[in-house]
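Chain X:
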Amino acid sequence: MDGRLIRKRYGRRIAALAATLSIGILLMGGVLLYLSSGVREAWVDYSTTSETRNTSLFELHRSIGYGGFIHNFKNYVLRQDTKLLDDMGEDLERSFSAVEHYASLPLSPDEKAALNIIKSTLLRYQGNIDVAKVAITDGKSISAIDQLV
Protein backbone atom coordinates (compact mmCIF):
# COMPACT_ATOMS: atom_id res chain seq x y z
CA MET A 1 0.00 0.00 0.00
CA ASP A 2 0.98 3.49 -0.67
CA GLY A 3 1.73 5.74 2.38
CA ARG A 4 -0.95 8.20 1.32
CA LEU A 5 -3.58 5.48 1.28
CA ILE A 6 -2.54 4.27 4.75
CA ARG A 7 -2.71 7.81 6.13
CA LYS A 8 -6.07 8.37 4.45
CA ARG A 9 -7.47 5.04 5.64
CA TYR A 10 -6.18 5.25 9.23
CA GLY A 11 -6.43 9.03 9.49
CA ARG A 12 -10.22 8.83 9.52
CA ARG A 13 -10.11 6.18 12.24
CA ILE A 14 -7.70 8.22 14.33
CA ALA A 15 -9.86 11.32 13.85
CA ALA A 16 -12.96 9.34 14.86
CA LEU A 17 -11.11 7.93 17.89
CA ALA A 18 -9.89 11.40 18.86
CA ALA A 19 -13.42 12.82 18.53
CA THR A 20 -14.84 9.96 20.62
CA LEU A 21 -12.19 10.50 23.30
CA SER A 22 -12.85 14.25 23.33
CA ILE A 23 -16.59 13.75 23.73
CA GLY A 24 -15.96 11.20 26.50
CA ILE A 25 -13.66 13.61 28.32
CA LEU A 26 -16.21 16.42 28.00
CA LEU A 27 -18.97 14.16 29.34
CA MET A 28 -16.76 13.08 32.25
CA GLY A 29 -15.99 16.73 33.01
CA GLY A 30 -19.70 17.50 33.02
CA VAL A 31 -20.38 14.63 35.40
CA LEU A 32 -17.57 15.79 37.72
CA LEU A 33 -18.89 19.36 37.63
CA TYR A 34 -22.38 18.11 38.49
CA LEU A 35 -21.05 15.98 41.35
CA SER A 36 -18.89 18.81 42.69
CA SER A 37 -21.93 21.09 42.88
CA GLY A 38 -23.63 18.40 44.97
CA VAL A 39 -20.61 18.25 47.25
CA ARG A 40 -20.67 22.04 47.57
CA GLU A 41 -24.38 22.01 48.49
CA ALA A 42 -23.80 19.21 51.01
CA TRP A 43 -20.92 21.18 52.54
CA VAL A 44 -23.05 24.32 52.83
CA ASP A 45 -25.82 22.31 54.53
CA TYR A 46 -23.32 20.70 56.89
CA SER A 47 -21.67 24.03 57.71
CA THR A 48 -25.00 25.70 58.41
CA THR A 49 -26.16 22.87 60.66
CA SER A 50 -22.80 22.72 62.42
CA GLU A 51 -22.78 26.47 63.02
CA THR A 52 -26.36 26.40 64.31
CA ARG A 53 -25.51 23.47 66.60
CA ASN A 54 -22.45 25.26 67.98
CA THR A 55 -24.39 28.48 68.53
CA SER A 56 -27.17 26.60 70.33
CA LEU A 57 -24.68 24.72 72.48
CA PHE A 58 -22.89 27.95 73.37
CA GLU A 59 -26.19 29.56 74.37
CA LEU A 60 -27.05 26.53 76.48
CA HIS A 61 -23.72 26.70 78.31
CA ARG A 62 -24.06 30.45 78.79
CA SER A 63 -27.59 30.28 80.15
CA ILE A 64 -26.97 27.34 82.51
CA GLY A 65 -23.32 27.51 83.56
CA TYR A 66 -21.13 30.11 85.21
CA GLY A 67 -23.06 33.36 85.44
CA GLY A 68 -26.20 31.51 84.35
CA PHE A 69 -29.11 29.79 86.02
CA ILE A 70 -27.37 27.14 88.14
CA HIS A 71 -24.70 29.60 89.24
CA ASN A 72 -27.35 32.15 90.23
CA PHE A 73 -29.39 29.46 92.00
CA LYS A 74 -26.35 28.51 94.08
CA ASN A 75 -25.67 32.17 94.88
CA TYR A 76 -29.31 32.70 95.84
CA VAL A 77 -29.13 29.84 98.34
CA LEU A 78 -25.75 30.96 99.72
CA ARG A 79 -26.30 34.72 99.80
CA GLN A 80 -30.09 34.75 100.03
CA ASP A 81 -30.13 37.75 97.70
CA THR A 82 -33.67 38.15 96.30
CA LYS A 83 -32.51 40.17 93.28
CA LEU A 84 -31.06 36.90 91.93
CA LEU A 85 -34.61 35.56 91.56
CA ASP A 86 -35.20 37.80 88.52
CA ASP A 87 -31.88 36.74 87.02
CA MET A 88 -32.76 33.09 87.56
CA GLY A 89 -36.11 33.58 85.82
CA GLU A 90 -34.43 35.09 82.76
CA ASP A 91 -31.70 32.46 82.77
CA LEU A 92 -34.26 29.68 83.02
CA GLU A 93 -36.23 31.05 80.05
CA ARG A 94 -33.02 31.29 77.99
CA SER A 95 -32.05 27.77 79.06
CA PHE A 96 -35.35 26.21 77.99
CA SER A 97 -35.24 28.20 74.75
CA ALA A 98 -31.71 26.95 74.04
CA VAL A 99 -32.76 23.35 74.75
CA GLU A 100 -35.75 23.66 72.40
CA HIS A 101 -33.64 25.27 69.69
CA TYR A 102 -31.01 22.53 69.94
CA ALA A 103 -33.75 19.89 69.92
CA SER A 104 -35.01 21.24 66.58
CA LEU A 105 -31.75 20.17 64.90
CA PRO A 106 -31.11 16.70 63.48
CA LEU A 107 -29.91 14.79 66.54
CA SER A 108 -28.38 11.44 67.36
CA PRO A 109 -30.09 9.26 69.98
CA ASP A 110 -27.35 10.18 72.48
CA GLU A 111 -27.94 13.90 71.92
CA LYS A 112 -31.70 13.43 72.40
CA ALA A 113 -31.10 11.54 75.65
CA ALA A 114 -28.70 14.24 76.88
CA LEU A 115 -31.22 17.00 76.09
CA ASN A 116 -33.93 15.12 78.00
CA ILE A 117 -31.63 14.88 81.02
CA ILE A 118 -30.80 18.59 80.81
CA LYS A 119 -34.48 19.48 80.49
CA SER A 120 -35.51 17.31 83.45
CA THR A 121 -32.66 18.77 85.54
CA LEU A 122 -33.82 22.30 84.72
CA LEU A 123 -37.39 21.37 85.65
CA ARG A 124 -36.20 20.02 89.01
CA TYR A 125 -34.24 23.21 89.66
CA GLN A 126 -37.27 25.27 88.65
CA GLY A 127 -39.41 23.40 91.17
CA ASN A 128 -36.78 23.91 93.85
CA ILE A 129 -36.78 27.69 93.50
CA ASP A 130 -39.99 27.85 95.53
CA VAL A 131 -38.60 25.32 98.03
CA ALA A 132 -35.51 27.50 98.50
CA LYS A 133 -37.66 30.67 98.84
CA VAL A 134 -39.77 29.10 101.60
CA ALA A 135 -36.70 27.72 103.38
CA ILE A 136 -34.97 31.12 103.26
CA THR A 137 -38.14 32.83 104.53
CA ASP A 138 -38.30 30.29 107.36
CA GLY A 139 -34.69 31.14 108.28
CA LYS A 140 -33.27 27.68 107.58
CA SER A 141 -29.51 27.24 107.37
CA ILE A 142 -27.68 26.85 104.08
CA SER A 143 -27.04 23.18 104.89
CA ALA A 144 -30.74 22.62 105.57
CA ILE A 145 -31.69 24.37 102.30
CA ASP A 146 -29.12 22.26 100.46
CA GLN A 147 -30.73 19.11 101.87
CA LEU A 148 -34.18 20.28 100.81
CA VAL A 149 -33.25 21.13 97.27
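Chain Y:
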Amino acid sequence: VLAETRDGLLIIDQHSAHERILFQRLMDAFEAGGQHGQRLLFPLTLRLTGPEVTCIGELAGILDRVGFEVEGFGGDTVIVHAVPDPHPYFDAERAFREMIHELTHGSELVRSARNQHERIAKTFACKSAIKAGQRLSDREMQELFDQLFATELPHHDVHGRPTIVRLSAGELARKFGRS
Protein backbone atom coordinates (compact mmCIF):
# COMPACT_ATOMS: atom_id res chain seq x y z
CA VAL A 1 0.00 0.00 0.00
CA LEU A 2 1.42 3.37 -1.00
CA ALA A 3 0.49 6.59 0.76
CA GLU A 4 1.68 10.05 -0.19
CA THR A 5 2.56 12.42 2.64
CA ARG A 6 3.70 16.05 2.67
CA ASP A 7 7.24 14.82 3.26
CA GLY A 8 7.37 11.96 0.76
CA LEU A 9 5.97 8.47 0.46
CA LEU A 10 4.99 5.65 2.84
CA ILE A 11 5.17 2.05 1.67
CA ILE A 12 3.11 -0.22 3.91
CA ASP A 13 3.40 -4.01 3.97
CA GLN A 14 -0.27 -4.95 4.15
CA HIS A 15 0.33 -8.37 5.73
CA SER A 16 2.66 -7.03 8.43
CA ALA A 17 0.37 -4.08 9.09
CA HIS A 18 -2.67 -6.33 9.43
CA GLU A 19 -0.72 -8.65 11.77
CA ARG A 20 -0.05 -5.67 14.05
CA ILE A 21 -3.73 -4.63 13.93
CA LEU A 22 -5.04 -8.14 14.70
CA PHE A 23 -2.52 -8.64 17.51
CA GLN A 24 -3.48 -5.34 19.15
CA ARG A 25 -7.19 -6.05 18.70
CA LEU A 26 -6.92 -9.51 20.27
CA MET A 27 -4.74 -8.38 23.19
CA ASP A 28 -7.29 -5.62 23.88
CA ALA A 29 -10.10 -8.20 23.65
CA PHE A 30 -8.31 -10.47 26.15
CA GLU A 31 -8.23 -7.58 28.63
CA ALA A 32 -11.98 -7.11 28.09
CA GLY A 33 -12.76 -10.83 28.56
CA GLY A 34 -12.37 -12.09 24.99
CA GLN A 35 -14.13 -11.76 21.67
CA HIS A 36 -17.03 -13.70 20.21
CA GLY A 37 -16.71 -15.92 17.21
CA GLN A 38 -19.04 -16.23 14.28
CA ARG A 39 -21.10 -19.42 14.43
CA LEU A 40 -20.58 -21.57 11.34
CA LEU A 41 -23.60 -22.82 9.39
CA PHE A 42 -21.56 -25.91 8.52
CA PRO A 43 -19.06 -26.69 11.30
CA LEU A 44 -15.56 -27.74 10.29
CA THR A 45 -14.66 -31.36 11.06
CA LEU A 46 -10.87 -31.58 11.22
CA ARG A 47 -8.52 -34.53 11.65
CA LEU A 48 -5.38 -33.49 13.49
CA THR A 49 -2.35 -35.13 15.04
CA GLY A 50 -2.48 -36.43 18.61
CA PRO A 51 -0.24 -33.62 19.92
CA GLU A 52 -2.41 -31.02 18.14
CA VAL A 53 -5.59 -32.42 19.75
CA THR A 54 -3.83 -32.32 23.14
CA CYS A 55 -2.76 -28.71 22.49
CA ILE A 56 -6.36 -27.74 21.69
CA GLY A 57 -7.53 -29.37 24.93
CA GLU A 58 -4.92 -27.47 26.94
CA LEU A 59 -5.76 -24.15 25.28
CA ALA A 60 -9.54 -24.57 24.99
CA GLY A 61 -10.40 -21.66 27.29
CA ILE A 62 -8.07 -19.23 25.52
CA LEU A 63 -9.14 -20.41 22.05
CA ASP A 64 -12.75 -19.77 23.08
CA ARG A 65 -11.80 -16.21 24.11
CA VAL A 66 -10.23 -15.74 20.64
CA GLY A 67 -13.56 -16.76 19.06
CA PHE A 68 -12.84 -20.41 18.18
CA GLU A 69 -15.47 -22.76 19.57
CA VAL A 70 -13.87 -26.21 19.32
CA GLU A 71 -15.17 -29.55 20.55
CA GLY A 72 -13.49 -32.95 20.59
CA PHE A 73 -15.19 -35.50 18.37
CA GLY A 74 -13.15 -38.50 19.42
CA GLY A 75 -9.69 -39.72 18.55
CA ASP A 76 -7.85 -37.28 16.33
CA THR A 77 -10.94 -35.34 15.21
CA VAL A 78 -12.33 -32.02 16.41
CA ILE A 79 -15.32 -29.98 15.33
CA VAL A 80 -15.01 -26.21 15.02
CA HIS A 81 -18.42 -24.60 15.57
CA ALA A 82 -17.42 -20.92 15.59
CA VAL A 83 -14.47 -18.87 14.35
CA PRO A 84 -13.34 -15.25 14.64
CA ASP A 85 -14.17 -12.97 11.71
CA PRO A 86 -11.12 -10.69 11.28
CA HIS A 87 -11.68 -9.80 7.58
CA PRO A 88 -13.64 -10.85 4.48
CA TYR A 89 -10.74 -12.93 3.07
CA PHE A 90 -10.28 -15.03 6.22
CA ASP A 91 -9.80 -18.75 5.55
CA ALA A 92 -10.86 -20.18 8.91
CA GLU A 93 -9.77 -23.76 8.32
CA ARG A 94 -6.33 -22.87 6.96
CA ALA A 95 -5.69 -20.30 9.69
CA PHE A 96 -6.84 -22.66 12.45
CA ARG A 97 -4.72 -25.57 11.18
CA GLU A 98 -1.61 -23.39 10.77
CA MET A 99 -2.13 -21.78 14.16
CA ILE A 100 -2.54 -25.11 15.99
CA HIS A 101 0.43 -26.60 14.13
CA GLU A 102 2.66 -23.70 15.16
CA LEU A 103 1.40 -23.71 18.75
CA THR A 104 2.03 -27.46 18.98
CA HIS A 105 5.41 -27.63 17.27
CA GLY A 106 6.74 -24.23 18.26
CA SER A 107 8.58 -21.52 16.41
CA GLU A 108 10.59 -18.45 17.30
CA LEU A 109 7.34 -16.46 17.30
CA VAL A 110 5.77 -18.79 19.88
CA ARG A 111 8.93 -18.95 22.01
CA SER A 112 9.24 -15.15 22.10
CA ALA A 113 5.81 -14.67 23.71
CA ARG A 114 5.70 -13.58 27.34
CA ASN A 115 2.57 -15.61 28.24
CA GLN A 116 -0.12 -17.87 26.76
CA HIS A 117 -2.36 -14.96 25.75
CA GLU A 118 0.44 -13.26 23.84
CA ARG A 119 1.47 -16.59 22.33
CA ILE A 120 -2.04 -17.16 21.00
CA ALA A 121 -2.46 -13.52 19.88
CA LYS A 122 0.85 -13.53 17.96
CA THR A 123 0.10 -16.84 16.27
CA PHE A 124 -3.49 -15.89 15.46
CA ALA A 125 -2.40 -12.53 14.01
CA CYS A 126 0.30 -14.15 11.89
CA LYS A 127 -1.92 -16.89 10.47
CA SER A 128 -5.10 -14.81 10.09
CA ALA A 129 -3.82 -11.57 8.57
CA ILE A 130 -4.57 -10.69 4.98
CA LYS A 131 -1.82 -11.99 2.73
CA ALA A 132 0.77 -10.03 0.80
CA GLY A 133 -0.55 -9.47 -2.70
CA GLN A 134 -4.21 -9.74 -1.66
CA ARG A 135 -6.10 -7.17 -3.71
CA LEU A 136 -7.73 -4.57 -1.49
CA SER A 137 -10.21 -1.87 -2.41
CA ASP A 138 -9.31 1.78 -1.84
CA ARG A 139 -11.61 1.77 1.19
CA GLU A 140 -9.92 -1.34 2.62
CA MET A 141 -6.47 0.20 2.15
CA GLN A 142 -7.60 3.38 3.90
CA GLU A 143 -9.06 1.36 6.79
CA LEU A 144 -5.83 -0.64 7.08
CA PHE A 145 -3.81 2.58 7.16
CA ASP A 146 -6.08 4.18 9.78
CA GLN A 147 -6.23 1.06 11.96
CA LEU A 148 -2.45 0.57 11.81
CA PHE A 149 -1.76 4.06 13.10
CA ALA A 150 -4.31 3.54 15.89
CA THR A 151 -2.22 0.67 17.35
CA GLU A 152 0.33 1.14 20.12
CA LEU A 153 3.29 0.00 17.96
CA PRO A 154 2.40 0.70 14.32
CA HIS A 155 5.93 0.46 12.93
CA HIS A 156 6.56 -3.27 13.55
CA ASP A 157 4.62 -6.52 13.13
CA VAL A 158 4.54 -9.39 15.66
CA HIS A 159 7.84 -10.75 14.28
CA GLY A 160 9.57 -7.39 14.77
CA ARG A 161 9.71 -6.68 11.03
CA PRO A 162 8.87 -3.18 9.79
CA THR A 163 5.32 -2.49 8.65
CA ILE A 164 6.24 0.85 7.04
CA VAL A 165 9.09 2.13 4.90
CA ARG A 166 9.36 5.92 4.56
CA LEU A 167 10.92 7.60 1.55
CA SER A 168 11.42 11.31 1.98
CA ALA A 169 10.84 13.76 -0.85
CA GLY A 170 14.61 14.35 -0.87
CA GLU A 171 15.34 10.62 -1.23
CA LEU A 172 12.84 10.35 -4.08
CA ALA A 173 14.35 13.40 -5.83
CA ARG A 174 17.86 11.91 -5.54
CA LYS A 175 16.67 8.55 -6.88
CA PHE A 176 15.33 10.31 -9.97
CA GLY A 177 18.43 12.50 -10.35
CA ARG A 178 16.63 15.71 -9.42
CA SER A 179 18.58 16.85 -6.38
